[in-house]
Design brief:
5 helices, six-stranded mixed sheet, globular, alpha/beta
């Protein structure tokens, strides 16, 4: 929500719902979403919600692709001034002599980022079959005064797909365009061939036996999906009542997590801070944030790059157990380590309670 936010230069993966959702509530514009790489998300890479779609699900998952609009009132109703999604002039572009020309249209005055798109997750295919996660920016072009844009690529191959987003200095960034696929001349049908009438000639020679048909080579099967990484590593640490420092026992657990992250460089983590339900919500939010921050700082000292770790503070909003006794309170005072692998490989992990700090 709001105006003048920037989401840039991020790697956004394993999202349930949209990659980035911007909601017009009460209004929003000039939100810039560029140079991000998306993978294994279950919705659109970028989703601009309308003012009427402001429920919890709409904030978390977006409200789906917006149709093209030209109403003068559209700027007031949808996120980022309802900037229209770029449209390719065709869903297929032909590669000729190693070159492919891309044409499209968008709002005049906007700048177009063209992306090579990443493979879809199954959920995204089911929800939005014409869309894929934005992978990497491969070109940036400007529209002319009529909103047309054009560029030529020499680094695309048949079968690859592309998408695009538009960014306007007054309104912000659009949703992503529907996919277009790159094809070669050999796998494209020739449209409207020129058919001429000829007389059939009279055969004057003996028929020749046609050469034997050479069978097509057996296609090489795709390699199997890698087996999930099975990590015997804890996924949480615990804290004393009203404390945010790392205990020696918790430090030993974080040492194991650091070893795993060094062994598997593609792993990134999210550190989620939690408290028990005592004290005010604002106090618990701050305490949970300090716990997550101290956990991150500990791992940084162990050599884990800071860009591989993000923190979130939930306070008392996600209690792990009902608080019937002191042990339950101790279980809720925790930081949970959520593992992601940027290649999309599943990771198994274990809860542990070896460092519970039960109040006296």
């Amino acid at each position: 929500m709001g105006t003048n936010h920037q989401v840039i230069n991020n790697q956004i993966t394993n999202q349930t719902g949209s990659g980035v959702t911007v909601t017009a509530y009460p209004d929003s514009e000039k939100n810039i979403i560029r140079n991000n790489s998306f993978a294994n998300i279950e919705g659109l890479s970028i989703d601009l919600n309308t003012r009427h779609n402001a429920g919890v699900r709409d904030f978390q998952r977006g409200d789906g692709p917006n149709p093209p609009r030209d109403s003068p009132n559209r700027r007031l109703d949808t996120a980022n001034g309802a900037i229209n999604t770029p449209e390719f002039l065709s869903s297929e572009f032909i590669l000729i002599n190693g070159k492919v020309n891309i044409d499209g249209k968008a709002d005049p005055g906007s700048e177009i980022d063209i992306y090579r798109v990443a493979p879809n997750s199954k959920q995204q295919i089911d929800l939005y079959p014409a869309y894929s996660a934005l992978g990497e920016v491969i070109s940036r072009v400007k529209t002319d005064d009529k909103g047309r844009f054009q560029t030529t690529f020499t680094n695309l191959q048949p079968g690859e797909m592309i998408s695009a987003i538009a960014t306007h200095p007054k309104y912000g960034t659009s949703e992503a365009a529907a996919n277009a696929i790159i094809k070669s001349v050999s796998n494209s049908e020739i449209q409207n061939p020129q058919i001429q009438n000829f007389e059939n000639p009279t055969c004057t020679t003996r028929p020749v036996t046609p050469p034997p048909v050479i069978p097509e080579p057996t296609p090489i099967p795709e390699p199997p999906k890698p087996e999930p990484i099975r990590l015997r590593v804890p996924r949480n640490i615990h804290f004393a009542l009203d404390k945010d420092f790392i205990s020696p026992n918790s430090g030993e657990i974080l040492d194991k997590i650091a070893e795993v992250m060094e062994q598997y460089p593609t792993i990134v983590i999210e550190l989620q801070g939690h408290t028990d339900s005592r004290a005010s919500d604002a106090y618990n939010q701050d305490l949970a944030k300090r716990r997550a921050t101290n956990t991150r700082n500990y791992l940084i000292k162990k050599g884990i790059p800071p860009e591989k770790m993000t923190i979130r503070s939930f306070g008392e909003r996600k209690l792990r157990t009902e608080e019937n006794n002191r042990v339950d309170y101790a279980r809720n005072r925790r930081v949970e380590v959520i593992f992601f692998d940027v290649r999309g490989i599943d990771i198994e992990f274990e809860n542990q309670e070896g460092d519970l700090q039960i109040e006296k």
